[in-house]
Give the backbone structure.
Amino acid sequence: MGIEIKVLLLFLWTLLFALVVAAAGSESDDGIIRIGLKKMKMDENNRIAAQLESIKGDSLNGFVKKYHRFRNSNSLGDNGDIDIVGLKNYMDAQYYGEIGIGTPPQKFTVIFDTGSSNLWVPSSQCYFSPACFVHSKYKSSQSSTYKANGESAAIQYGSGSISGFFSYDSVKVGDLVVKDQEFIEATSEPGMTFLMAKFDGILGLGFQEISVGNAVPVWYNMVKQGLIKDPVFSFWLNRNQKEAEGGEIVFGGLDPKHFKGQHTYVPVTRKGYWQFDMGDVLINGKPTGYCAAGCKAIADSGTSLLTGPTSVIAMINQAIGASGVVNKECKAVVEQYGPTMLDLLINEANPKKICSLMGLCTFDGSRGVSMGIERVVDESNVKSSAIIHDAMCSACEMVVVWAENQLQQNQTQERIMNYLDGVRYDKILVPYFSGNASYADYTHYPLLQLCDRMPNPLEQSSVDCGRISSMPPISFTIGGKIFKLTPQEYILKVGEGPEAQCISGFTALDIPPPRGPLWILGDIFMGRYHTVFDFGKLRVGFADAA
């Protein structure tokens, strides 16, 4: 009788375990793996932490050094190098899921990040970083499948860093087990960035070309070890803040319940990030002209916001009424060079060469490039802070884009000259700032407003929460199709009631050649559009999220 009871209890325990595993998200009868994602809305603690990091460090530093390496090295991620990747902006909305490392599995929450390629988690050998004390730590001594590697690894971010060493172990994703996966045990996580994070580590889903130490990414081993049906994974990010479910990442295919209609696919143009060609950007349905000849973009699940070149982000922030930093360099460019720029445009000079013709930028073969960026790319001893302080090139590019856009909208030369003359001859600029002109006079000159909207790369731009319904849609052309974002989709709201703050989802990031200029379509875009990453056919697809 006792044996029968034990058998019954064993059966019930096995059944319960099976139900728990199934509920957690695993392989279904259609041969794909579903991983449920959790989300964390932005709160004041995260925002303060990010602001402190911005004060302490240069947020562009990681990007500049990374592209310096790409430009000058034929071997990416060589052993022994300190490879450098850009920090993801997790301060507004974090989407993270659970994995297991080791046998038996040790649980970790990770960001599934298509903008990087390494897996790292805190190590039990992390003794001096506060971040390690508030997150789960990997203990190699408790895993029967652990294999030592020991090679050092370091990832330098724009506002923080991690360092440690490589190890091998089994990695459990859903009910898949990837064997002998190389990953980083982080022994140092200085700063507040990871201290305030709700996740333990990062699981990169980018290409091996940008992998630190040339480590084989988890996704590659999923495919190589035959663990999935098709070499495809897809993201559904739930942007409904009232629902607890954060979304779902599907390995091996896509779930029809997550999207509506057909996907628009574009080929991957450069392996590393999931990079593709993008057409023009539209404000309220009208082309800006900046990407009329094409731009480069990446789909990045590890970036909360949507980033692009300063010149166009400033136009977008002006259109939506976002408050930027009063940019003296921009006003100086308008005052000194505005009419000359217009003359060159009217005489059909190449818009992309105008700023270099006036000596404000260098020309990289496609468009003007900040001399600060050029110096950082070419000289390793020059600090990346030169990019922030060398704003004349960005200001010039912005003014050219604005003037070209005005001409395309059939604005008369006289009308545009009136805008520029108002600045050049101090009809508005000096009187306004000296208190001798009204705000109504000032707002008559939209180019001055454009300078005020020029974003600071270290800060976000705020908007009036009460004006969201009147803001214009912002659209992106991908694969010949228009993908529109409404203000309710691109504005991030922090808090509730009268204390609520609203933040523009568009932030400036000037990435130098050869990788840039580059648009980063983060969670704001991927939340609106279900995104497919097709590793087998090297393409990215977008469809309306369901």
About this structure: Residues 328-366+387-427 form one domain. The CA atoms of residues 494 and 501 lie 5 Å apart. The two ends are 53 Å apart (CA to CA).
